[in-house]
Write a structure and sequence with these properties.
By secondary structure, the chain is mainly alpha-helical. 62% of the residues lie in helices and 3% in strands. The chain has one domain. The protein has eleven helices and three strands. The N and C termini lie close together (11 Å).
């Protein structure tokens, strides 16, 4: 899920903390050049793992041909399935939210270099997703089943549209910074990332959280909704709403009245007519979309 987003793009650890953790990393690896090379390999591994987890999520939720999907496998006792699936969803939600909070980042980057902090977050989120795919227990009871061919096509179109919105939205902000590669590349070239800038490109002019909107479309649009799929959809919807609350709290702390105006003018998840034109200083990306709760 993505590997979801946060205000990471707009968070910068204190320079002294970042410097200390980077120096410690370089000492551990032997020299600066070797540390940079290891960072690149580590970031590439985290990104490849994310890419695999993201693509598998499409097959898992959509019951496409894959090794394991949300409804595949032999059903076991209902109570144990509910407990295990809820714990798996909770583990992902806790990891994804706690590690995205600025307070945690300030503590975490005492030990992990700022350069690879985001890549580590992505790596752990991807591992949590892979664990969920592996250990998920199906609950096959049918909640609804759509048989009309036209309705099925509409639902399938919404499903794929949702995933497309998620992916496109990551590039509208900064895909490679969102997943930790830009930070590593900057260190490799001894560059400093520019300070955060509030902008609202394309989808972000209509909804504040298009990535979350895309996930909701993908999770709910299905011709056949099983009880297990419904549990997944309800739990992730609740997590998304909580994540939005936490993320927007961080964004207000970072951007102040600029984000408050944006929140007043643009709908959270549903595209609505603007109550008033966006100001020039809020035209352009990313209302901080880099995380996730």
């Amino acid at each position: 899920m993505a590997l979801t987003r946060s205000v990471d793009r707009y968070y910068r650890a204190g320079r002294s903390t970042e410097l200390m953790s980077s120096i410690a990393f370089d000492r551990f690896t032997g020299d600066v050049a070797m540390g940079a090379i290891i960072s690149v390999l580590y970031g590439a591994l985290a990104y490849v793992l994310f890419l695999g987890a993201f693509l598998y999520a499409i097959a898992f939720v959509g019951n496409l041909h894959s090794l394991k999907t949300i409804d595949s496998g032999e059903a076991g006792p209902l109570v144990s399935a509910l407990i295990i699936d809820t714990l798996l969803l909770g583990l992902f939600a806790i990891q994804h939210s706690v590690m995205a909070r600025p307070a945690f980042k300030r503590w975490w980057t005492r030990f992990v270099p700022q350069t690879v902090e985001r890549a580590t977050y992505v790596l752990l989120a991807s591992l949590a997703l892979l664990l969920l795919y592996w250990q998920w227990r199906p609950i096959p009871d049918v909640i609804w089943s759509v048989t009309n061919p036209n309705a099925v096509l509409v639902l399938q179109a919404i499903f794929w549209t949702g995933w497309a919105v998620v992916l496109i939205s990551t590039f509208l902000i900064n895909h490679f910074e969102l997943f930790g590669l830009r930070q590593i590349y900057a260190r490799l070239r001894s560059q400093t990332l520019p300070p955060p800038v509030f902008k609202t490109p394309f989808f972000y002019k209509r909804v504040r959280h298009p990535i979350y909107l895309g996930f909701l479309l993908a999770f709910w649009a299905t011709p056949s909704m099983s009880a297990g799929h419904l549990l997944f959809a309800i739990a992730t919807t609740g997590y998304i709403l909580i994540g939005i609350y936490l993320e927007e709290r961080d964004l207000i702390a970072l951007f102040g009245d600029q984000y408050r105006r944006y929140r007043e003018q643009v709908g959270m998840l549903i595209p609505l007519p603007r109550r008033k034109a966006l100001r020039d200083d809020a035209s352009g990306v990313a209302a901080g979309k880099l995380k996730t709760p």
